[in-house]
Amino acid sequence: MEYIEIHFGEDLERSSRGLKPDHNLFQSINPMFCLAKRLWKPQMDIFETRTHIIIQAEIAGVEKEDISIEVTNKAVKISGNRCRTPPPEPGTYRLAEIQFGGFERILYLPTLIDPDRVSASFSNGFLELTLAKIPVQKPQKVELS
Fold it and tell me: Phi and psi for 62 in degrees, rounded to 5?
């Protein structure tokens, strides 16, 4: 049986990643990755009820005017842009994890929806779409002549 090596306390700094013992977690970093344009994927949830599909997207910091929603009967495309807020001067990044720039998500739906019966709301950084399902029609019998 093989074991996974776990480092505790001071040994964490001397792990196999080659960090120096005096490595400072909050040392200055070059936030180039933060300043470059790139796509990011906001987290989303899809709920399904008997009559509706509900999509929630966590897009804090995105202005309402910067959100675009496109709907077909089988898919939803949500796209937009979160603008970077420059840090106050003078300042140095110590940690840069917040993603900025454009985003685009295409969600394929588990059932057909009616694109004419879609509602959207945006509050506290959450976008919520409510999509009405197309009712499943019972098959009709066809009489042979």
Answer: -95, 130
E strand or H helix at 115, and its extent? strand 113-123
Query: DSSP label at 142?
Result: -
Sheet holding 113-123, edge to edge: 44-48, 52-58, 126-133, 113-123
The CATH fold assigned to 28-133 is Immunoglobulin-like (2.60.40)
pLDDT in tens, 89-140: 887 778 878 888 999 999 999 999 999 999 999 999 999 999 999 988 888 8
DSSP codes joined into one string, 21-72: TT--TT----THHHHS---B---EEEEE-SSEEEEEEE-TT--GGGEEEEE-
Output the furthest CA–CA distance in the chain (Å, rounded): 89
Cis peptide preceding 90, ω within 30 of 0: yes
Average pLDDT over residues 7-15: 45
Q: Tokens 């995105």 label which residue?
A: 62
Report how far residue 65's alpha carbon sits from residue 58's, in angstroms, rounded to the nearest whole number. Answer: 16
125 to 11, 34, 42, 43, 119: CA distances (angstroms): 40, 20, 11, 12, 17
Q: What average pLDDT does the structure give for the chain? A: 79
